[in-house]
Write a structure and sequence with these properties.
364 residues; alpha/beta; Rossmann fold; Alpha-Beta Plaits; 2 domains; six-stranded mixed β-sheet; elongated; binds adenosine-5'-triphosphate
Amino acid sequence: MTAENTAAEPMAPLFEVRGGCFSYGDGDVLCDINFCVGEPDILCVLGANGAGKTTLLKCMLGLQKWKRGASYLRGRRVESIRAKEFWSSVGYVPQAKLSSFAYTVGEMVLLGRNSHIGGLSMPKERDREAARGAMELAGVSDLSGRLCSRISGGEYQLVLIARALAAEPRLLVLDEPESNLDFKNQKRVLSTISTLCKERGIAAILNTHYPEHAMDIAQRALLLLPDRSAIYGSAANVLNEENLKRAFEIDVYIHRFKIGGRAYASILPVDGEEKRQTERLREMETRIAQIGIIVEDPDAAEKINKLLHEYSEFIIGRMGMPYRERNISIISVIIDAPNEKISALSGKLGMFPGVSAKTVYSKL
Ligand SMILES: Nc1ncnc2c1ncn2[C@@H]1O[C@H](COP(=O)(O)OP(=O)(O)OP(=O)(O)O)[C@@H](O)[C@H]1O
């Protein structure tokens, strides 16, 4: 065993894959995969059917062997870590298929303590306490005495999350946790994962078929492409229309909007005619923009103030600076608003005599 395999690197991220390549036979399934995740981040893995999401998850967890490259937990190669130690840091949540187990929910969650309980030992009070805590966190305490075969799919998914949490992991790995659930239960499962990561300071990696879910809860995204490479980065940067089209081979329209100050996005796969029609909707999308204003006529200042006041609910930052040598003022306004509002404000500013205004839009 080399020193590199055993010693944790200082400040190593919680989990990392470097240069991961895998094939079942001749052709590559995954090619040069790189990503890392730290606490309390959520990373979503997305890609079309057959893109390699499940395979990636297996390689990450050491259930399949990378052909090239490796996975690292706190800087240590995963294959050099003993299984019991690995599974006490990593909680795996499989897809919730209807359970036929004759276990109660409480017993099922207690099974999550296996990595902490010796081979022939019985669970101790400490284990029962951890299982109770995990059920509370996942919001399934009330189901404790019910049989797993007699609860709903959404409830069972939360039970599986509780079972993984019972081991008190630092990283949760979830395989399509919201598939097979109705949208109320999808929301419940996703917000449970998001809250857990924030409150417990743990990280999560999850496969999903829903880019909207990734945009909603993930800080990072890994998008698997048909050519077997991947795009990795912040969810906001990776999940744009161009990249989603590359991954899913269909045009995509992303509609961004705000409710109660929180940003949301809805994503629509569109074909030719629909694509043209969505162009009109762009006017209602919210964007972040900076409007740079040069005021050469001192009398215009008051009119500008009045106008900016009308848009105050959208203005998130404002800065003004006189440049006395030339007797002008420079104002910078940052605005988070629907496109139509931004262009209207920018247009009105440009109409004032002695005022020049230029708008720069963010890519998001
Ligand atoms: N055991 C196997 N032997 C050979 N090829 C396999 C095996 N498992 C999967 N594959 C192939 O590897 C590729 C990736 O499969 P994988 O199941 O990882 O994709 P996925 O992104 O999870 O798909 P889906 O979204 O449909 O679940 C596919 O082309 C699949 O046919």
